[in-house]
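[[Local backbone shapes]]
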Amino acid sequence: MIILIVLGFLVVCLIGWFISTSNNINRIKLKIDESLSGVEIQLRQRYDVLMQGKKVAEQYAQHEQRVFEGLRHLTQIPSNATIDQLNEASKTQEEAVRGFFALGEAYPELKSAEIFNNLINKLSDQSNQYSAARRAVNGNITKLNNYTVTFPSSIVCGMKNVTKMDYIHEENIDQIKNVDLSMNI
């Protein structure tokens, strides 16, 4: 009789642990979805700022096709974008941002224009907000990935078909860190 009670208690504990772990995994997946929407918002806002920058740059440097070529490759971020789509959008936007900064360096009269400086400040703010949103996503992905690779939670992940996720990457981090954001004159 005591053996049955102990076994029953162990089964109840095991079921409780399974439910608790499963709920934690579900909560982390919800946090990932929520934080991914923050990344999408930041990329959309940066896209809008870059399109404003394109209009300003066209007024000052109609013959500078390199930057415009980079801006032409920008596309809107699809709703519920995958991490791969977000990484690709981030990569093309980073290239456009670098081209935009380079344009300011190449044309001092553009660099000294108030509207250009406002756009540079917006891009700088967007980059900071995007970095924060990306860190939130990657932090939540790390939590989920920890569940997928540690025993015994990996058993629950296997039963729920939860697999290790890729991170949102920061493209060319060394080049981005070296961009001069102090373009205000």
